[in-house]
Amino acid sequence: MLLPNIGSSIASARQEHLASQQPTLEHKHAPAAPVPNSALADAPLEMDWLRTKASADEAQTPAAPVPQAPPELTSEQLQELVKQIPQLDVTKIADKVFREIEKRMRFEQQRRGL
Hints:
By secondary structure, the chain is an all-alpha fold. It has helices at 3-20, 39-42, 49-60, 75-84, 90-112. Residues 13-74 are annotated as: Disordered.
């Protein structure tokens, strides 16, 4: 029978495969050289460090800008600006809204099978 030979050949092939693989996980390797301690690790910060840093940051922020008065417009300039504004047609907007509502209502009716 060939079946017992197949099982042993699969097991031996698996062992060969596992033996031929090289380790690829970097976190499992030992570090190449010891990491030197930093200056902060040797001499820890004082407890007031954050307080002094915050006060230094506050000193660097500039004062709020002084608000300026808006420019004065004459009535003719104002009339010209109003003419430049696009005129909206309320009836067209209302028709678009109504069509959109009708479309959604038809969709809901079809979805519910009414």
